[in-house]
C-alpha cells in the first residue's frame, strides 16, 4: 500500500513537473511571439524614418510617364501597381539599404537619421513580401519585376555581396531598375498588355529616358558622402568621378535624356509635349548651375542641404511635367 502511494505521489510529482515545463514552454513561446511582433511586424519610429516614404514619391515621374503612354488603363491594376512600387517596394529598398549602411551622417532627405534597429530589417522584408503577393493579383510580369528589383536591391546593400561598393555596377543597378525596368513593367501592368509583346523603338526609348533622368541624379545624391562611404569601404560613382566630375556626368546624362525625349515626341508627332518640358527643365538647370558655381568656389558646398534642394527641385519639376502628360498625350 505504501509502495502504491509512493508510486502515485511520484506520478503526481512527474505530472506537476511536466505541467510546469509545458507552462514554461508556453510562456517562452508567448515571449518569442511578442518579440517577433515588436521587432518584426511593427516598425519602430526609427524604421519608419529610414523607409523614407517621401523620397519614394520623388520617383513617381517614371510611373506617371508610363500611365500617360498606355493605350488603355485598367484602374484596379493601376492602383495596385502604384501601391506596390511607391508604398512597398521603394520604402523596403530604402530601409534595407539603411539597415546595412548604418549611416551616422545625413542620407537622402533625412539630415539626422536615428540609429537603425532590427525592426527596420524585418519590416523591409515584410513589405517586400506583401508587394509580391499583391503583384500576383496584377500579372506574372509584375511579380517578376518586383522579385528582380528586390533581389538586386539586396545584392546592392547586403554586406556579403555589397554591389554598392562597385561604382559602375551600383550605377547600372539604379539606372536599369529604377528607370527602364519600372517604366516597362508599369506600362504592362497598367495596360494589361504583356511586356513580352509589342516592343518597338519608342517603347525602348521611353525606358531609356527614365533611366537617364534617374541616372543623372544618382551621383549628386552621393557627392556629399565621400568620407562616410570611404569609411564603409564603398567606392561610389561620385567618388570615382570626383565632385566636379559628378556634376559633369549629371549634365551629360540630362542632355541625353532631353535628346531622347525630343526623338520620342517627334516619332509620335507630338513635339508640343517636348516644348512643354522646357519650362519645367529650366528651374532644374538653374538650381544645378547655381550649385555647381558654389561648389567651384568651395567644395564644402557639396553638402546635404544643397543636395536636398537639387533633389526636391528636380523631382518636383519632373513629377509635374509627367503628371501633365496624362492630360496632353
Give the beta-strand count. Answer: 0
Average the pLDDT over all residues and give the rounded result: 87
How would the global form be characterised? globular
Give the biggest sheet.
none
- Count structural domains: 1
Poorly predicted runs: 1-38
Which structural class is indicated by helix and strand composition? mainly alpha
Distance between the termini: 98 Å
Helix content bin: over 70%
Order of SSEs: HHHHHHHHHHHHHH
Q: What is the overall number of helices?
A: 14
How large is the share of residues in beta strands?
Answer: under 5%
What is the alpha-carbon Rg in Å? 26 Å
Tell me what the structure shows.
It is a single chain. The chain has 329 residues and is mainly α. It has one domain. It has 14 helices and no strands. α6 packs antiparallel against α7 and α7 runs antiparallel to α8. The protein is globular and about 50 Å long. The N terminus is likely disordered.
Keywords:
single chain, 329 residues, mainly alpha, 14 helices, globular, disordered N terminus
How is this fold's topology laid out?
Layout: H1 2-41, H2 45-51, H3 53-57, H4 60-69, H5 75-101, H6 118-135, H7 140-157, H8 167-191, H9 201-217, H10 226-232, H11 237-241, H12 243-267, H13 272-297, H14 304-328
Helix pairs in contact: 1-6, 2-5, 2-6, 4-8, 4-14, 5-6, 5-7, 5-8, 6-7, 7-8, 8-9, 9-12, 12-13, 13-14
